[in-house]
Amino acid sequence: MSGTEERQGSSSVNKEMSFAERQAERMKRLRSLHTARNEARSHNHQEVVAEETRNKLPPNYEAKRRQAEWLLEDQKKREEAALQGKEYDRVKVLNISAIEAERLERKKKKKNPDQGFSTYEQATVRQYNRLVKNMPAADMEQYEKQKQKYGDAFYGGPNVIIHGMHEDRREAVDKMVDDLEGQIAKRAKYSRRRIHNDDADIDYINERNAKFNKKLERFYGDHTAEIKQNLERGTAI
């Protein structure tokens, strides 16, 4: 075989090998694309399922979940402080900045602002929110025991007679009595409406003006007593 024929044969083998390598590379890329497509399809399916699950949840689910997590963490820290013999509320206040404390106080006032008396309904709502906020954490163990004990009667109903089934605990009765006595003591400190004095001078045109004049008298009465007397006698300059 001449040198020319050997070179031609070698060139043919090189071309066949390069074609086989290119074919293998194409197959490798094709398999990679198939794998990526399957992964994307699986990921999309998971996202669709997750989105459908989220759509079935109530609108405030995320806020409720974050609140529940915060309550659990707060309860855990409270128990740790109790084990260490520390007062948790004091430790909690010492670990926050003045700006954060002021923000929490504003948020607290905004949540249940004291706008004075408007209607008896609003006063009842404010008292209800205050009493609910001061309630201790629910005893879930006792809750489950009562649920198992009373069965369908636990939730009541139009055809369920609950009277005589439940026996109040001594601690619960004592707590209710203490709470009622605290309300009575707080109510006794409220300022009662002043009795109208018919002999007092009429220096106002309506009730609002009367209250304003009383405020002026309380803050500036001592400094303006002489001027007022001169005006009444007609000897003011």
Automatic annotation (TrEMBL):
Region spans: Disordered: 1-62
Subcellular location: Nucleus
Main location as per UniProt: nucleus
InterPro entries: mRNA_splic_SYF2
Keyword flag Methyltransferase: no
Record keywords, A-Z: mRNA processing, mRNA splicing, Nucleus, Spliceosome
Name of the molecule in the record: Pre-mRNA-splicing factor SYF2
Source organism per UniProt: Iphiclides podalirius (scarce swallowtail)
